[in-house]
Amino acid sequence: MTRGYSLEEDLKLLINNSKYRSIKEDSLTKDNTVEAFHAADYFQLSDLQDFITRTVKNTDLGKNYSPELLSKISEKPLSEDNILLNLLVETVAIMPLNNIEFGRLSITGFKYLLSITHEKEMSFATPEYEVFRYSAILAANQVSNDVYNTLIELLPTLEQLDNSVRVGNKFIIDNQTIAEELKPLIEFIDFRRIKAQIIVDIIEPLKIIPTETILGIYRHMALLSNLNLSNTRGIPINEYGYVWDEKACGSKLIIEDDGKVVHAPYGCGFQNVRAKIALEDKGIFEWDVIIEKHCGWSWVGVCASENLDFERFAGSQSTGATVTVHLDMNKRTCAFTVNGTRYREVSEWKDLPPKLYPVVSLCHPGRFRIQPHRKN
What we know:
alpha+beta
């Protein structure tokens, strides 16, 4: 009792001693951050907990090691109001799962991610089919390397499906073992968001999903054929789709910074560029266009897939202005926020096409950056 009290007092003194403030942040690593947070929680040191959470949020710890930290913190039972857990879930949720190498995120950590984001209005980067794919391969990885490699072949990414990649036809001997490993995750996967053709052609033949689950999916499809569901849970984020498309770009415009920035060099008149991401199906899509250098007049909006015409005049904005586009494909409506002020839906736009792209028009010396919108 005395030793515990002494340690608690020592920790409090350490936190409040300015001599140590400069080294505390540097002393946190991916190996000790979670243990430090648990210790602070045990001794009810809320200031230290807040400091650790801020450090994870504002440094490379969160950017580079969120999957590992989520795996680590999930080793102990946690309540859903745990501040570090929620921060890590929010951070991993906006990372496309295809970019998280297998082995970085444990099944337990992944279960926390799915359970907390399930049917919640949270930003999420990964379509539900890719959520299932990651779950199944993660489960297969617990069985054997052979099963893991087989399932990677049998479960192509959505990008591979779009490119008509042929799916393998290998037989999975250990499908029941995979099904058992997958069982804790199944209830947090929303199969209603996955296209029927993918379920029929790819998922069901694997025989790793319980029959009653498959039947339930088909019942939903039969009874609710017009269900307004996006293919991504929460508020969809597609980090890698919100980049400018060099194939749909004015000849004089220059795209840089991995596609995030477009600028008009000297001598460039008004030209258009659209983003790679196609906004279709159902769902609400939001993105920001940051005007890093204005060009007198600028247009920000959406265009149909058949052409690159302007669809909305956003006005003349100064350097540093941020235009957020709010596109609701369920209602086929669009609204804009400029520097934090949201304007009404554009009532003049009726029956927007079923497939749209973000688009801007600019001239010299304009420089525009695109990024998915994140609510503060």
